[in-house]
Design brief:
InterPro entries: GAF-like_dom_sf (IPR029016), HTH_MetabolicPath_Reg (IPR050707), Tscrpt_reg_IclR_C (IPR014757), Tscrpt_reg_IclR_N (IPR005471), WH-like_DNA-bd_sf (IPR036388), WH_DNA-bd_sf (IPR036390)
Number of helices: 9
Distance between the termini: 56 Å
Keywords: DNA-binding, Transcription, Transcription regulation
CATH architecture of the largest domain: 2-Layer Sandwich
Number of domains: 2
GO molecular function, one term: DNA binding
Shape: elongated
Radius of gyration: 20 Å
CATH superfamily of the largest domain: GAF domain
Largest sheet: 6 strands, antiparallel
Protein name: IclR family transcriptional regulator
Strand content: 15-25%
CATH class of the largest domain: Alpha Beta
Order of helices and strands: HHHEEHHEEEHHHEEEH
CATH topology of the largest domain: Beta-Lactamase
Low-confidence stretches: none
């Protein structure tokens, strides 16, 4: 088909009108405001938003019902400037942890009820490293860092998450019942750290701690992943102590 005979896809135009407007705004917006600023009927805007939401590019605040572009969209377009300063601030602390423990460290965020890895530092001291690809997504319920975000949810938010999320067994060690996961979350709340004991991937263990702002809110998570063969009880305890000490020094 010749280009001059091709027709413009108006639905795609409207979807990008929403994306461009939300990117320029940089804030969470209610449906009424999205409709007003784009000039789209509310029903049309809602249909397009729902499509983008199911694809993971728009997220909805469960408390306010307002919409914003997700981290998946920002990573896709390489618009990670909003996290650049935070990553640059935390990277030296990650390097300290990696050097001290001779293991890989990761920095993660929660986006649209999933864990997203935004920075990773490998250890140069071991040939066998557990490396996480930047931008990779993983479930909250079976990752060390992800369970920290679950532990910070209100009881209503956690109930909604458990009702909406199938607890699929990724390994024989994955917690697949609500009761078992809720007990683990309670343990994490008291301990201040979280473990992934081969729940996400066989042969890999992880220790994670939260990085909080001055108000106590979890901004991101710092974790150390290692082959299970090196994850002795002594090494796990050393990792917990190191992560807690270093994370407390990060000035957020």
């Amino acid at each position: 088909m010749e280009e001059k005979h091709m027709k413009v896809n108006h639905s795609l135009q409207k979807a990008f009108a929403i994306i461009e407007m939300m990117a320029e705004s940089g804030a969470e917006l209610p449906l009424n405001e999205i409709s007003r600023q784009t000039g789209l009927p509310k029903a049309t805007a809602l249909r397009l938003i729902y499509t983008l939401q199911t694809m993971g590019y728009i997220q909805q605040n469960s408390r306010t019902s307002e919409y914003s572009l997700s981290l998946k969209f920002q990573l896709l377009t390489n618009h990670t400037d909003i996290y650049h300063d935070m990553i640059e601030l935390i990277r030296p602390f990650m390097q300290r942890v990696s050097n001290h423990l001779a293991e890989a460290t990761c920095l993660s965020l929660c986006d649209n009820q999933e864990l997203v890895y935004i920075e990773s530092i490998d250890s140069l001291d071991n040939l066998l490293n557990v490396t996480q690809k930047i931008g990779k997504r993983a479930p909250l319920y079976c990752t060390g860092a992800g369970k920290l975000y679950l532990s910070a949810m209100t009881s209503e938010e956690l109930t909604r998450y458990l009702d909406e999320t199938p607890l699929l067994a990724l390994t024989a060690h994955t917690l697949t019942t609500k009761e078992a996961l809720q007990q683990k979350i309670s343990d994490i709340q008291h301990a201040g750290y979280s473990l992934d004991e081969e729940e996400c991937e066989i042969g890999v263990k992880c220790v994670a701690v939260p990085i909080r702002d001055s108000q106590g809110k979890i901004i991101c998570t710092l974790s150390v992943s290692m082959p299970a063969i090196r994850a002795t009880e002594e090494k796990i305890q050393q990792t917990i102590t190191t992560l807690k000490t270093v994370s407390a020094e990060i000035p957020l």
